[in-house]
Each structure stands twice: as C-alpha cells, then as structure tokens.
C-alpha cells in the first residue's frame, strides 16, 4: 500500500513511479495552500478530482476543479490554493522530468515558515 506523506497543508500519496514520470494524489485541506515554489528539473500536470481551488502559475490564476487540467512548465513559479474552499481539494499530479524528488523545490513564500534561504 502506498504511503501517505503528511504536510502542513494536507497530504500526498505517490501512486506510480516510472523513470521520468511520477504520479501523485494530492489533498489540500480547506483553508490551506502550498508554498509558492518552482522546480528546476520537472514540469507538472494537475488534474482536478474533487473540490475546487486555485492554481497560481507565473502570476496567473486558474481554476482547479473536477475534469480540469493545469500545466506547470519547468521553472514556473506556482502554488495550489484551497483557502476559500469548504472541502478538501483532491487532484492528481503528474510530474515529468529528469529529477522527481522533494529536493527539487525552491520555495519563495510559505505559510508554514519553510522558505528557502538560497
């Protein structure tokens, strides 16, 4: 069984890992958002499953909702926001790239004091 990885904003579960591709289920709890971040080595595709939230990608806002897909280009500054939601935001994230690890995160702003000092 896949391990649930708890985070201050909710949790994620790695569903499938192939060379160059990682598939995760992400759950962002109501009233929370992920850090404003970027990735040097990967792009991401976000598919809404249930709930609604906002995808911020390079200063533009897009709806995350069931049946909608958002693309995060490699190097784009982005975040997922469920601060106005009343139910958990559930989405599938597909990462594609040469390095698919938690080490490939640069944080610019974070509600949970996890900003990098690089």
Describe the structure.
The chain has 118 residues and is mainly beta. Helices cover 0% and strands 57% of the residues. The protein is built from no helices and 12 strands. A 6-stranded antiparallel beta sheet has the order 1-2-3-11-6-9, with no helix packed on it. Strands 4-10-7-8 form a 4-stranded antiparallel beta sheet, with no helix packed on it. A hairpin with a 2-residue loop joins strand 1 (4-7) and strand 2 (10-18). The protein starts with a strand and ends in a 9-residue tail after the last strand. The mean pLDDT is 94.
SSE topology sketch:
Blueprint: E1 4-7, E2 10-18, E3 21-28, E4 32-33, E5 36-38, E6 42-50, E7 53-57, E8 60-64, E9 69-72, E10 78-82, E11 89-97, E12 106-109
Antiparallel strand pairs: 1-2, 2-3, 3-11, 4-10, 5-12, 6-9, 6-11, 7-8, 7-10
What are the defining features of this structure?
57% strand, four-stranded antiparallel β-sheet, mainly beta, 118 residues, six-stranded antiparallel β-sheet
